[in-house]
Design a protein that fits this description.
Length: about 300
């Protein structure tokens, strides 16, 4: 990583540290700030459409606890639609903490900006993680700086939102940024995700998902892969396992209760999928996380 990029990210990390408790102010800018002082267990994370940047430390994110990509400040993640991931912090940075920021992406702004730019040819299926550039790091730093200048934020934040899209469209993730804004079928996937989230326990098949949004199974499967990198059924499994974990930890459900509540017919099937995702049995994972929560 070049010195200019590193300097911008280091400065951005310091801004997050100083403002980590200003949740409402950050959210008004479309930002979610993150900081922890230690590696974490695997967690289910539901990303909204955003660009996710690690400013200090490293994390692993992917399909499950075993198969994931480790990344840090040299990369960034684009999620053009709601995307469930399994993630964990693996390392803290030189200052002894892990620091991150998620910046919400508005598809309408993407469409507006893209319509005014000559777009270079980009791969239809880019790598899941993008390569950080000095320009992206700089605009992230300047957006975070508005936490120190609330009187200016109303004027400058919309400009920086557009500049971020310009910089992302100039990156190796241009195709993923455009995905949600340039394809009419993005609305189909958004509708499918909403339906699945609200009706997790139903016995879904690919055909049933497609029928729920008035599209063909082929179209739904193709668009899911383009926008999320997952098949519809794999996406559904992530949603189910994430909600089941919440039920185990916060509601105290048994494994059998949690699995049934999210649509698993077989308790053993649920336990196998859960262990694959989180690396432990449902009972031991929930017990450990409840203890961590009580100790924190």
């Amino acid at each position: 990583m070049d010195e200019r990029t590193r300097t911008s990210l280091d400065r951005a990390a310091d801004r997050v540290r100083r403002h980590i408790d200003r949740v409402a102010a950050a959210e008004s800018l479309g930002l979610i700030l993150g900081r922890t002082n230690a590696p974490s267990p695997t967690m289910f994370v539901q990303y909204k459409p955003c660009v996710s940047v690690v400013l200090a430390g490293r994390k692993v994110s992917g399909d499950d606890s075993a198969a994931g990509e480790e990344w840090g400040p040299e990369r960034f993640l684009i999620t053009p639609v709601d995307l469930p991931l399994f993630a964990r912090v693996t390392e803290t940075g030189p200052a002894g903490d892990f620091v991150s920021v998620n910046w919400r992406i508005d598809p309408a702004v993407v469409a507006e900006v893209a319509g005014q730019l000559p777009l270079p040819a980009a791969p239809e299926a880019p790598e899941r993680l993008g390569t950080m550039t000095a320009e992206i790091a700089d605009v992230v730093d300047r957006m975070l700086a508005l936490l120190d200048a609330p009187a200016e934020a109303g004027v400058l934040a919309p400009l920086l939102n557009r500049e971020l899209i310009v910089r992302l469209l100039q990156s190796d993730q241009a195709a993923r940024v455009l995905a949600a804004a340039t394809h009419a079928n993005a609305d189909i996937i958004t509708a499918a995700i909403t339906t699945l989230t609200r009706r997790l326990a139903e016995p879904w098949t690919l055909g049933a998902i497609a029928a729920s949004v008035g599209a063909s199974p082929t179209t739904v499967s193709r668009r899911f892969r383009e926008l999320t990198g997952l098949t519809p059924m794999r996406y559904l499994k992530r949603l189910r396992l994430g909600e089941a974990r919440r039920l185990l930890i916060t509601d105290g459900d048994t494994a059998a209760q949690a699995g049934a509540a999210v649509g698993y017919v077989s308790a053993s099937h649920f336990s196998r999928d859960y262990r694959s995702a989180y690396g432990r049995s449902p009972a031991s994972d929930a017990t450990d996380l409840r203890e961590r929560m009580r100790a924190s």
